[in-house]
Design goal:
The chain contains 11 helices and 13 strands. The protein is of the alpha/beta class and 347 residues long.
Length: 347
């Protein structure tokens, strides 16, 4: 099993200037932090999360029975994969570039991986997508196919396709308004800690499609451990639905757009080639460095407190993903990159 590859804190500790994660750099949201500080940590949370699920259902305008609480999006990725495998799925379909936990969970549960361009099969399949996508931050090209309801297999009374949309970065859409989608036909994964700038707090939830039966929701809840989310996670998710927290998020998007414009200009000045189509608070750039020199340069930067996300694990060698950070961090990146000079090979 390959090691996990993630941005953020590593063996060197917390980076002073962490471009490697996609969290909202305006955070942590002070209102949500206050909610965590007031959490009842001496008591177990409600194991059914009754109030929390009701609040999330009202926030999204969906039926209470469609809400599934999870320890994180990654925990829900594994749980949904396990459930799909137990229910007949034999393979997964992934975007060309994608979050590694989708494939990792499939490997654990023995699902084969289909190529993105593979023709439709009569065999049940678990289909993952993320919008804005990771790492590119682009719109997904799955909506013509996903606009039609999933159909049953001709050989057995099972869904032929489980469709799951990772909405982790949808609240951080910066380029205009997020497109309208009919999400009632798909599973939705929501991870508010990114938008709130507090990824150290682990909690998430899923919204089931309209067609999902109560027995399937019960099976998914049964796969979770007791108290899958602790008091701090509950407090964060409850804060997420508050009007003042949503107002804070809206204001932060204006700041992030300004910082993003500055960061894109910096990349142009440094000679980094940004991949077009990015919609969120992160983007991918090709560095003017030979692939064999990438790791050395990124390590030098990391030793100076600057971390970029190497995109080799996404299938994009020679590229980095950069979360949008404030001007102070951008200035640190400029100085550190310029100090590297031309000692390593350039393309």
């Amino acid at each position: 099993m390959a090691e996990f590859t993630h941005g953020g804190t590593d063996a060197l500790g917390v980076p002073a200037h962490d471009f490697s994660t996609n969290r909202n750099a305006c955070g942590p949201c002070p209102i949500a932090v206050a909610a965590l500080q007031a959490a009842h940590v001496a008591q177990y949370p409600d194991p059914l999360y009754s109030d929390l699920r009701a609040q999330l259902a009202a926030f999204h305008g969906v039926d209470l029975g469609r809400i599934l609480i999870g320890g994180s999006s990654s925990e829900l990725i594994h749980r949904l994969t396990q459930h799909a495998q137990r229910s007949g799925a034999q393979s997964i379909r992934l975007p060309s570039h994608h979050y590694g936990d989708y494939a990792q969970a499939a490997q654990v549960w023995g699902l084969a991986q289909n190529a993105p361009s593979a023709p439709a099969s009569d065999q049940p399949v678990l289909h993952w997508a993320c919008e804005p996508s990771s790492p590119l931050g682009c719109c997904e090209e799955i909506w013509p196919a996903w606009s039609q309801p999933p159909v049953l297999s001709t050989s057995q009374e099972l869904l032929r396709e489980w469709r799951v949309l990772d909405c982790a970065y949808r609240p951080l859409w910066l380029e205009g308004e997020a497109p309208e989608r009919d999400l009632d036909l798909v599973w939705q994964l929501w991870t508010p800690n990114k938008a709130l700038g507090m990824t150290g707090v682990r909690a998430a939830y899923a919204i089931a499609p309209l067609h999902v039966a109560a027995v399937e929701m019960a099976a998914l809840r049964a796969l979770a451990p007791s108290w899958v989310v602790g008091s701090h996670g509950v407090a964060m998710l409850q804060a997420w639905v508050r009007a003042d927290v949503q107002q804070w998020l809206s204001a932060s998007l204006h700041q992030l757009r300004d910082w993003k414009r500055q960061q894109l200009a910096l990349c142009e000045q440094l000679g980094w080639q940004v991949i077009a189509g990015h919609q969120a608070n992160y983007f991918v750039a090709r560095l003017p460095v030979a692939d064999q020199a990438m790791a050395a340069r990124l390590q030098v930067l990391r030793n100076q407190g600057i971390k970029l996300r190497d995109c080799a694990s996404f299938g994009l060698p020679g590229h980095v993903r950069l979360g949008v950070l404030p001007p102070l961090s951008q200035a640190a990146l400029r100085v550190a990159w310029s100090a590297l000079g031309t000692s390593l090979e350039f393309i």
